[in-house]
């Protein structure tokens, strides 16, 4: 099968379109014909060697953790799915080697949910990692109706999902972004504020009592977070481990089939939309990585792979 691979840590120039063997099907896995994958910043951070202290890497590596496709074979202990099912997954395994930038992939059933019929494969592949990150940070902080939630980086891949999820949970949402993206934030359900100098004053002008919950998806904003946090408020970051020393939580997303199914329900209810900014064919994965690294897209970057 065709797959994008790299054989050493480095940048997008290391990516190669290769012929590789189909992966073996484990008992609690399904093998899918991949229809789409998506690019997340963690993918090129992994490729640079940034997660080497955390996860074992076996070269050559097929990158990618987000995937959507059609089940072609079912493992001995995978009754959750049948051949022909359309699924999506944050298919992260316990080591780095077999990813989603390939024509076929084996997916642990603990990571997968059925694809919402209303989403294209490219949209479905763009939801799992970023959507789960948003869902898990918000729900672990106990966001509920009536809370005021501040989202740092509200126009980004994770932040835009967090805005919508927090609103669906009944919260009032304030989101930071550059002014050119404020109309998009309003459409997603947030009250936009510009980031940078004076952020705390702008947030306090909207919410004098402060934010009950602050979620940070960009890093470098701990001072502003503490300045706007209400008495007894909760905060978390996926980008700044120092929050743990300031009463917050440093969070890492986990694959979770039940959480992903809940996101699918929000999609089908019309409460969560998935914006795909750009789509690339598999052989242009290096260009997709470069577009992600530029960081200027309003929406996810996807790879179209199968038919």
UniProtKB/TrEMBL annotation:
User: What taxonomic ancestry is recorded?
Assistant: Bacteria, Bacillati, Actinomycetota, Actinomycetes, Micrococcales
User: Sorted alphabetically, which InterPro entries does this protein's record hold?
Assistant: ADH-like_N (IPR013154), ER (IPR020843), GroES-like_sf (IPR011032), NAD(P)-bd_dom_sf (IPR036291), YIM1/Zinc_Alcohol_DH_Fams (IPR050700)
User: Pfam families, per this entry?
Assistant: ADH_N, ADH_zinc_N_2
Organism of origin is: Brachybacterium aquaticum
**GO MF:** oxidoreductase activity
Sorted alphabetically, which CDD domains does this protein's record hold? Answer: MDR_like_2
Ranges for domain Enoyl reductase (ER): 10-303
The name this protein carries in UniProt is NADPH:quinone reductase-like Zn-dependent oxidoreductase
